[in-house]
Amino acid sequence: MEAKLQNKRPKFLNLVKIRQPLPAVISILHRLTGVLLFFPGIPLLLCTLQLMLGSQDDYQKLQSYLLDPITKGGLLLFLWFFLHHLFAGIRHLALDLHYGITLSQARASSKVVLVAGIVLTLIAGLFIW
Question: pTM of the full predicted structure?
């Protein structure tokens, strides 16, 4: 009797050591990019808009900020956040409509989301630099 009770106890799962499949990683990144677009993304966007629409000096200051390579890298990072969140959201909508729900299709659509976000970010990076 005690042996059966021992087996029903919950197990400690170390989520860092568990290797997640690609669709799970894409789903986690979708949630993470949504959070990052919301919190630092919206305040930074509003500050940029305020500098753009303020005075001429504020606009010149914004232009000097945008020429900095670190700022360009941050813009590319936020662009990847946006593109990944967009493509993963479209993928989730398709899954909700029962398109691509087989295992092979889900894995393929996860690869498409990952590659499309990275490739379009790199193309935008070529235009920024």
Answer: 0.86
